[in-house]
Structure formats: structure tokens, C-alpha cells
Design brief:
The complex is a heterodimer of chains A (222) and B (260).
Chain A (H helix, E strand, L loop, with lengths): L10 E5 L3 H6 L1 H4 L12 E4 L5 E3 L3 E2 L13 E11 L8 H4 L3 E11 L10 H4 L5 E9 L10 E6 L2 E7 L7 H9 L9 E3 L7 E3 L4 E6 L3 E7 L3
Chain B lengths: L1 E7 L2 E7 L5 E3 L4 E2 L9 E2 L9 E5 L3 H6 L9 E5 L4 E2 L3 E5 L6 E2 L2 E7 L15 E8 L2 E2 L11 H4 L5 E2 L4 E3 L10 E6 L2 E7 L7 H11 L7 E3 L14 E6 L3 E9 H5 L4
Classes of the chains: A mainly beta (222), B mainly beta (260).
GO molecular function, one term (chain B): hydrolase activity
Organism (chain B): Marinobacterium alkalitolerans
Keywords (chain B): Hydrolase, Metal-binding
């Protein structure tokens, strides 16, 4: 675990929240093993061994034989930081429970299947940097209109407008708070661009959201 | 030796329980109270809960019961501390569902950090064993990151305890009788010998992916014999030589009270 991460106790990520990605995968999701498209937000955790900070190196993952994996990818999301205990809130009230916003990067193996929890792909040590800081909620007027950009070695590779999310921030907070009571400092990564960005050993990755910050990390293994 | 966390006489205490059921606090004070006393409120036994790993379909007979092929590698999902509750506490049944079942499971509690742990060394990383009831709501299953968080990450649906038994006191964790009763009637009668992936295998597997840390827990799956549970039911999950975990089911409204 990296000391002094900004995450308290839980980092929930929302997969498949990019409308364009859902549309592109509709055919796949009507077939086995999925059989029908998701009716609920598709959620996964980045557990505490993954949490890291701005400026930290992200370990290049090893396979089960101890060799470096061939490919890693990164996605970035707005991180919604819970400000007070959030239990069974309505979407109308949900944003009142947000304490602030930050940037979450999710480094992983390429997303090949959404059928089973992707422990091998997603739970890699140091693979979830969060930061550089938490910006107070009242400084971010319209979080659903923000855009998340990823640059690799200075070149822009991805831009995702949160307006293109299948489910809004308020809707996600409400739904998740009916599954689990959220505590202050817990973070929800609300949505990633469907196309994850390929990274290589030694790459410098900047995940930026205007008004929230730029989270910069370097891939290890070089 | 056994270790637990309780509230007694208004105080939250870390306690040791010896072979004669004598309770000593971490301050060295002996408590004059019986283990089955109503004066004890049992808390989840891991003081600083970390990542909770749970296994799906890790018993061949349960896989058959759910119409699945037994897996070729562990099916692991993650839970967090919001799901935990203690012995003799309540768990809730969500409104408007058809089928919620218990899952009596042996839990290995991680005692020290490690990565790339070899199977033969794995038990050195286990502080002890306890019992959990990893409830599931079948209505909420969807084929995305299945079993999804809506099924497995709900408040109070992972009772655990009452205590942790030192690893050294369980010479073979894969030869323990495992039973569940609902309102006193035996509904699940199995053995940890039928586990597909045992604790050393799972520790080797997980630690190839990530670092395991003290306070992490591995819930090892449940055998055949699951039934629907309703508010008012009392469920007791028992693993021989480890402990018996009692849970009472309540409605969602009763559980959440003012927040309902």
C-alpha cells in the first residue's frame, strides 16, 4: 500500500458507463455469457493494495509465470468523494452528499470480458492512483459537464465528456447508496471512456479534468 | 487461543478466550462472564478489516446445485467492511425479492503482508480462522462481474465470528464438518474437505496478482445445501473446532429504521 492515499476505505468504479461503448457492445451483450445488456450500473472495486498517489510509479504487472505482461491499459475518471454518510439517498439529493472531486486513474490489463469479477486484471498493486488533490464540491458547479482527458508522453490519446455517461453522477450515488452505506472519504469513479488507452513501460501518463486537476504517473518496468 | 472483539459493560474490548472459555482483555483483565451471556455484544472479529476476498462455487457439489461446471481457477470477488456484522446480530432481507440464501464459509484471516507466496509457506501468512455467512440474493444476479456488487456488497450481509481461532489450533482446515441450521433445522451438512481450491492454493493464487495485507480475509465458499431465508429466521453457521455464528434475519425496513 502507498501511504497517504486520498481514499478512505473504499474505491468503487463504474464500468460500461460510456453510452458509445454500450451501443458498440450491444450485440455482444445479447449473446452468451451475458445474454442481455446490463440493467444496473456495472461496478467493481479497486481494493486498498491498488491505491496510490499523484507522481507515483505504477508497477508493470507480471503474469502467473512471473514474466512481465505484454499489455497494460489505462482509463481515467472523475472521482466523486463522499462528504458525509450516504445511505439510501434519492438522486435529487445525492449531490448534497458529495464532499469534493478528484481524478482517478485505473491501470489494468486490457478489459477482455465483463462476465466475472476481473481480479487478475484490476487488482494490481499501485494500479489506482488518485489525486492530485480533492477539490471542494462547491468549486465544481456542473460536474456532469466535465471532460476527462488522457495524455501519454505529452500526446492526447483519449477525451471523454461526462455528458456521454449512461448514468449521471447523482443517479449513481443514489443507486450505490441503496446497495451499501457510503462513508466520508470513500470515492466513486463514475465513468471511463469505453476505449482504454494502451500504455508501455516507462510512459508518462497525465489524466486531466479541467478545474479538478491533472494526475501524473509513470509506468514502471522500463 | 481464540480472539474476539466485544462490547461489554459499555466498553469496546479486544479479548482472548482460552481453552476453558476464560476471557481476558488485552489489558490483562479477566472478565467474569460466560461466552453465551446476553451481556456480550459481539463485533466482527477483525479489528481493522482490509480487503475481503470471497470465493464463488468453490465446492463441487454447490457448483452442481447451481448448474455450473466446477471452475478451473478460483472465482474470486471482493467485499468491504460495510458488509460485516458480528455474532448474534441481524442481517436484512431486501424488499420484494424471491430468493436470499446463506452461505456458511470458513474464513482465513491474513496476519502478515506478502506477495508471491508459495503454497507451502501460505499458512505462515494466516493469523487464524473464523466463520462467515456470505449471504446472496439470487434475484439481483446479472452476468456482469458476476456475482455483482448488488448481490454481494450489501450492508450487514456478511456476518462473521464470533471469534478467530489461531492457525496453530487447526491442524487441518480441510477436514472440518460444516453445518447450517435454520430455526434449529439442519439445512446444510458438508465438510471443508470438499473445497476445490484450499486456503494455501488461494493465497498463492491471489498473491501472484497482488500484495495481501494483515486484516485481509479470504471467505472460501460454501458446499451444497442452500435455502431461502425470511425475516424472523435464525440462521446458525457452524464449522467444527472453529465457531458457531448466529444471525437473525430482519426486514429491510426494520434494519434501516429512520433511513428506510
Amino acid at each position: 500500500m502507498t501511504a497517504n492515499t486520498l481514499v478512505n476505505s473504499k474505491l468503487v468504479c463504474v464500468a460500461l458507463n460510456d453510452k458509445a461503448q454500450l451501443a458498440a457492445l450491444e450485440g455482444t451483450f445479447n449473446e452468451a455469457p451475458y445474454k442481455k445488456p446490463p440493467t444496473q450500473p456495472v461496478l467493481y472495486y479497486k481494493p486498498r493494495n491498488t491505491w496510490s498517489v499523484d507522481g507515483a510509479e505504477v508497477e508493470w504487472a507480471k503474469d502467473f509465470d512471473g514474466n512481465d505482461v505484454a499489455e497494460m491499459v489505462v482509463g481515467a475518471s472523475l472521482g466523486v468523494v463522499i462528504g458525509k454518510e450516504t445511505c439510501r439517498v434519492s438522486a435529487a439529493d445525492a449531490l448534497d452528499y458529495v464532499g469534493g472531486y478528484t481524478v482517478v486513474a485505473d491501470y489494468s490489463l486490457p478489459e477482455q470480458s465483463y462476465y466475472r469479477p476481473d481480479i487478475k486484471g484490476k487488482c494490481l498493486d499501485t494500479s489506482a492512483p488518485v489525486g492530485p488533490e480533492i477539490v471542494a464540491a462547491d468549486k465544481v458547479a456542473t460536474p456532469d459537464s466535465l471532460s476527462v482527458a488522457i495524455k501519454v508522453n505529452g500526446e492526447q490519446k483519449s477525451a471523454f465528456d461526462l455528458a456521454n455517461m449512461e448514468r449521471s453522477i447523482a443517479e449513481l450515488i443514489s443507486t450505490i447508496s441503496r446497495i451499501m452505506t457510503l462513508q466520508p472519504g470513500e470515492i466513486i469513479a463514475v465513468g471511463f471512456a469505453g476505449d482504454r488507452v494502451a500504455v508501455a513501460k516507462g510512459d508518462k501518463v497525465e489524466a486531466s479534468i479541467e478545474g479538478v486537476g491533472t494526475l501524473t504517473n509513470t509506468l514502471g518496468g522500463a | 487461543m481464540r480472539h474476539a472483539r466485544i462490547i461489554f459493560d459499555g466498553r469496546e474490548l479486544d479479548i482472548d478466550i482460552d481453552a476453558n472459555d476464560r476471557i481476558t482483555t488485552s489489558e490483562g483483565e479477566t472478565l467474569d462472564v460466560a461466552l453465551d451471556s446476553d451481556q456480550i455484544t459481539w463485533l466482527p472479529p477483525v479489528k481493522e478489516p482490509g480487503t475481503i476476498f470471497a470465493l464463488g462455487i468453490n465446492y463441487a457439489d454447490h457448483a452442481t446445485e447451481l448448474a455450473f461446471e466446477p471452475p478451473k481457477e478460483p472465482l474470486v470477488f471482493i467485499k468491504h467492511a460495510n458488509t460485516l456484522t458480528g455474532h448474534k446480530q441481524v442481517s436484512y432481507r431486501p424488499d420484494g425479492i424471491e430468493y436470499q440464501h446463506y452461505e456458511c464459509e470458513l474464513v482465513a484471516v491474513i496476519g502478515k503482508s506478502g506477495k508471491n507466496i508459495k503454497r507451502e509457506d501460505a499458512l505462515d501468512y494466516v493469523a487464524g480462522y473464523t466463520v462467515c455467512n456470505d449471504f446472496a440474493i439470487r434475484d439481483y444476479l446479472e452476468n456482469y462481474y458476476r456475482p455483482n456488487l448488488r448481490v454481494k456488497s450489501r450492508d450487514s450481509l456478511l456476518p462473521m465470528g464470533p471469534w478467530i481461532v489461531d492457525t496453530a489450533d487447526i491442524p487441518n482446515a480441510n477436514a472440518l464438518k460444516l453445518t447450517t441450521t435454520v430455526n434449529g433445522k439442519l439445512t446444510q451438512d458438508g465438510s471443508t474437505k470438499d473445497m476445490i481450491f484450499d486456503v494455501p492454493f488461494i493465497i498463492e493464487y491471489l498473491s501472484k496478482i497482488m500484495t495481501l495485507n494483515p486484516g485481509d480475509m479470504i471467505c472460501t465458499g460454501t458446499p451444497h445445501g442452500i435455502v431461502d431465508c425470511q425475516p424472523g429466521d435464525t440462521i446458525v453457521c457452524t464449522i467444527e473446532d472453529v465457531c458457531s455464528l448466529e444471525t437473525r434475519m430482519v426486514s429491510e425496513q426494520k434494519f434501516y429504521g429512520d433511513k428506510y
